[in-house]
Amino acid sequence: MKASSSTLHKSSPTAAVHFKTAPRTSPSASEEEVASQGKPPLSKPASNKLHTLAVFTAVAVTPFLFVVVLSIVLEIRSYFTSQPTQQFCCPNELLTVLRGVNSSIDPCDDFYQYVCSRIDAGEVQHVSPPFRVIQQLNLLEVANPGESGSAAGEMLATIKRGVWDAEQSGGEDIGDYVTAISKALRLAPEMDLLRMVRFMAELSLRYGLSTVVSFEVSEAGDILIIKINDGCISQNRNTDMLHFALESFNNVVNATVDLQGLQVVEETVIALRRSKAPKILYQPINNSPFEDLKDGDWNAIINDLVLPVHPNANTVETHQNDKVNALLDNFAYSPHQPATIAYVAVCSALSTRDLIEEAALKPGAQSLSACQVMDICEIEQAYMAHLLSGHHMNEYVAALFTKMRDNVFQHANASLGKVYQEEVSRKLQGLRLVLPEEIVASDIPVPTVAGTFADTFIAARSYVFEVRKAKVARNIPNVDDLFLPAMVRNGDVAYVPTNLYAIVQQHVQRMVVLDVPVLGVDMAYQLWSFLLEQSWPSEISRSIETYKSCFKGSRSADYLKTAYTALGVVSAVDAMMAVDWNVVGSVNGTETTVGRLVYLMQLYATPTVEVFSDDTPGVTPIFVGRDAEGNRSRPSSGNRVRWILGIGTPQRTFTKNVEEWDMPVSIFVFTAILLGLLIVLAVLILWRALSGDKDTSKTSTWEGGEEDIEGFGLAIRPFRGRRASMNETVTDAVELLIAR
Question: What global pTM score does this model have?
Answer without folding.
Answer: 0.59
